[in-house]
Amino acid sequence: MIEAPYIGSLKAGPLGTIADVAGITVGHCTLDDGAVQTGVTVIRPHQGDVYRNKVPAAASVINGFGKSIGLVQVDELGVIETPIALTNTFGVGTVANAQIRHAIEANPSIGREWPTVNPLVFECNDGYLNDIQALAVREADYVHAFEACGSAFERGSVGAGRGMSCFDLKGGIGSASRVCDIAGRSFTTGALVLANFGRLPMLILGGVAMGQTLSASEALKPEQGSIIMIIATDAPLDARRLRRLSMRAAAGLARTGSVYGHGSGDISLAITTAYTVPHLDDFLEVPALVSDARLDPLFQAVADSVEQAIVDALFSAVSVTGRDGHRRLSIKDITTT
Q1: What residues does 247 pair with on adjacent strands?
Q2: Which of 116, 226, 239, 250 is the residue whose CA sits 20 to 30 A from 299?
Q3: Domains in the chain, start-ordered, CATH in brackets?
Q4: Where in the sequence is the signal peptide annotated (predicted)?
């Protein structure tokens, strides 16, 4: 049986997930009903109201074959003002509406005395296993995932990852963390991925071309999947530096064998929990930021945690049968048969 490799030389945090970054919690709502194999995953950057206390953020679009919502304002203002939501491609609008209603319920002035709210929803296409045309995701599923958020959370075939495929195997939610030192201070960086990309012959595990061993010799079909990579750190960074971190997610993704295919939507978002941006304050107090010349340890932590999170998605997933009898085996099942 193949063992999940440990990536890199940096140590993981105690949980080994994105929740090692103080304040980060994750929750799922999983829809598992015959042809419906999908769901919603929510990442809360802190336990307060994200609209009132916005979180510094930046995104990188590595390959833009995707239908996410909210990235334009993130690029312009450098903050997020809702929790981060993941779901299937056709669930984006529904989950965005749920985020808007949720924010208005907590802040009735939104859209009236105050500006509107920027929902933030990322997606991958789970249509091989899930009857995506059923439009099964409901606004209540977002609320359920939000309320389920905690530091201990499942990975693999859960939440938004329920119907996702990765290297022609069962994919889904994966997470990892790494701890690094900068000028005598310790910082934690974590990644959570929604892994839905790759063809089996491409798979590389810990530097070993494992996909060539596991796959039959056949012509490589075009890649039509996607991956969403969420990076969190407690290192004090501004949006410009966070964008530099988000770009390094591509390094971890490439190590697993991805070439960011034409039909792949590969997007990363990086946030910091080191400080927030109050909605109503006139001036912003920012802690001393990590200088650009000292970012290399964080770059390594991002690349290693993203690669480890993809490995975690593969090894945490269970086999799933869905629409029209389509089935994806977990890597654990395929290596024991």
Answers
A1: none
A2: 226
A3: 18-334 (3.60.70.12)
A4: none
